[in-house]
C-alpha cells in the first residue's frame, strides 16, 4: 500500500462510518444510499483536493468491488440458510 493512498482511504472510511451511523439512526435508510449521496455532495459542493485522488481510486475500484462480492455472498448464504438444514443436506 502506497503512502499517498492513505488520505483518500481515510476519507472513504469516514464516509462509510457516517453512512453506517445514519443507517443506525434511521433503519429505513440504506447505508449504501447514504454513502452514494455523501459522495455526490462531497464532489459537487466543493472540489476535493488532488491528494485524495489516489486513495479514492483504490476505494472506488478495489474495495468497492470486494464489497459487492461480499454483499452478493452474504445474500446467497442467507438464502441457503433460509432453506433449512434438511433441505441443504437433501440437495447436497
UniProtKB/TrEMBL annotation:
Entry keywords, A to Z: Cell membrane, Membrane, Transmembrane, Transmembrane helix
Record field: transmembrane: 29-48, 68-89
Domain of life of the native organism: Bacteria
This protein's record includes keyword Cytoplasm: no
Family: Belongs to the UPF0324 family.
Subcellular location: Cell membrane
Pfam family, one: Cons_hypoth698
Membrane topology annotation: Multi-pass membrane protein
Species in which this protein is naturally found: Nostocoides veronense
Name listed for the protein in its UniProt record: Sulfate exporter family transporter
Amino acid at each position: 500500500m502506497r503512502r499517498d493512498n492513505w488520505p483518500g482511504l481515510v476519507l472513504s472510511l469516514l464516509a462509510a462510518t457516517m453512512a453506517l451511523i445514519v443507517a443506525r439512526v434511521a433503519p429505513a435508510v440504506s447505508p449504501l444510499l447514504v454513502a452514494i449521496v455523501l459522495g455526490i455532495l462531497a464532489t459537487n459542493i466543493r472540489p476535493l483536493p488532488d491528494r485524495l485522488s489516489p486513495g479514492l481510486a483504490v476505494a472506488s475500484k478495489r474495495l468497492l468491488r470486494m464489497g459487492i462480492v461480499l454483499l452478493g455472498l452474504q445474500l446467497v448464504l442467507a438464502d441457503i440458510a433460509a432453506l433449512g438444514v434438511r433441505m441443504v443436506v437433501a440437495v447436497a
